[in-house]
């Protein structure tokens, strides 16, 4: 953990994406999975303007944008075996797949759900065979919908129908889905009903597939796997709570709850700054340690380490964002960190980096229409004085 503290302390802004013509909140980030011989090449970002933006991983140069209007895109994931294939769930009841190599704006594959489905979460398993998407509650129904994803790497275009659904295990919006990092048959789902369910999708039916149900007592905002061989599950809640369970203890007399914090803001003291919200978590394999990422409304980023005795602050990144940070992606191979926020900025942080850009940070805030008019007026005054 000390080494990680040092790395965090040495993180500096290496690159900053240029603001697009239509600034938008950056809600979710994923990086392409690297081929054996190279590092990851692409970053994909899900934006509040109903689009996915793709950037070069090293330079943050903008490459492509995919839109789903009138639907809303939720989440973004790269395929594991092909670094040019990217997915997003859509509120129009589909999961769409794009190929960055192609110039087309059109999805190369569409995974269609059932007529009433509105997808707000999804994931693809570690061997790229199965896609699972979670729905909003419609009438009394909430579904986990599954598709066979084979064929995506050569992207035979067309529409794929679902393999089937789980319909009994949640009774409200399914906000998060996360497949196991190394076991392709395990998936965990989280919902506004407070439940975090672990399934083994190799089983024949939903009842047999449900391995465990953990109750967070609050609406789930983030879920992930952690621990040696990823035998643990954790979640964050919309009211800034944290729960952590050990699934390996299911068949023992030991309690499965490792830690339950009702409100992290009350328990973690981060120096002079305050903690306003949680963004997500990350399990560091080499250190065998779970970390949480949180922040402030002014753009500071706090990192905390998790132990069964509680949460402790590790450090803070300041001076990058000017508003709430909504998404991050930590690359453990080169210890770099990508962050995206409500200031429309995508930042790449690297240990010991020096930012070449001299752009003023204040100008990165999304300008209101009034501010835009004022700025033009000021510049015209200066030119008249000359």
UniProtKB/TrEMBL annotation:
Superkingdom of origin organism: Eukaryota
PROSITE patterns tied to this protein: WD_REPEATS_2 (PS50082), WD_REPEATS_REGION (PS50294)
Gene3D superfamilies: YVTN repeat-like/Quinoprotein amine dehydrogenase
SMART domains the UniProt entry points to: WD40 (SM00320)
Keyword Hydrolase: no
Entry keyword Repeat: yes
Pfam families: WD40
SUPFAM superfamilies per record: WD40 repeat-like (SSF50978)
Keywords recorded for this protein, A-Z: Repeat, WD repeat
Organism: Chlamydotis macqueenii (Macqueen's bustard)
Ranges of the WD repeats in the UniProt entry: 167-209, 318-350
Protein name in the entry: WD repeat-containing protein 89
């Amino acid at each position: 953990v000390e080494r990680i503290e040092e790395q965090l302390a040495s993180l500096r802004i290496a690159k900053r994406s240029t603001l697009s013509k239509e600034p938008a909140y950056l809600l979710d980030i994923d990086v392409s999975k690297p081929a054996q011989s190279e590092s990851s090449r692409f970053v994909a970002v899900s934006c509040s303007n109903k689009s996915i933006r793709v950037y070069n991983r090293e330079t943050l140069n903008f490459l492509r944008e995919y839109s789903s209007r009138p639907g809303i895109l939720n989440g973004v994931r790269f395929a594991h075996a092909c670094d040019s294939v990217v997915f997003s769930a859509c509120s129009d009841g589909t999961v769409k797949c794009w190929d960055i190599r192609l110039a087309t704006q059109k999805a190369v594959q569409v995974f269609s759900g059932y007529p009433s489905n509105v997808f707000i979460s999804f994931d693809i398993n570690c061997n790229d065979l199965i896609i699972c998407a979670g729905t909003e509650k419609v009438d009394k129904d909430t579904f986990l919908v599954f598709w066979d994803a084979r064929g995506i790497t050569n992207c035979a275009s067309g529409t794929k129908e679902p393999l089937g659904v789980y319909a009994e295990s949640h009774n409200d919006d399914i906000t998060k889905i996360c497949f196991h990092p190394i076991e392709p048959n395990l998936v965990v789902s989280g919902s506004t009903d407070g439940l975090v369910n672990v399934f083994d999708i190799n089983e024949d039916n939903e009842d047999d597939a449900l391995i465990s149900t953990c109750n967070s007592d609050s609406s789930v905002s983030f879920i992930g796997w952690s621990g040696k061989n990823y035998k643990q599950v954790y979640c964050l809640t919309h009211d800034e709570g944290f729960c952590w369970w050990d699934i390996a203890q299911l068949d023992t007399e030991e309690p499965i709850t490792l830690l339950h914090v009702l409100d992290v803001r009350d328990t973690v003291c981060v120096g002079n700054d305050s903690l306003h919200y949680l963004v997500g978590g990350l399990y560091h394999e080499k250190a065998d340690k779970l970390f949480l990422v949180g922040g402030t409304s002014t753009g500071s980023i706090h990192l905390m380490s998790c132990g069964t005795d509680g949460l402790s602050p590790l450090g803070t990144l300041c001076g990058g964002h000017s508003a709430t940070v909504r998404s991050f992606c930590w690359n453990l191979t080169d210890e770099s960190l990508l962050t995206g926020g409500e200031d429309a900025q995508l930042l790449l942080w690297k240990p010991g980096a020096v930012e070449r850009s001299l752009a003023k940070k204040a100008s990165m805030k999304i300008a209101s229409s009034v501010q835009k008019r004022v700025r033009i007026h000021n510049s015209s005054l200066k030119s008249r004085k000359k």
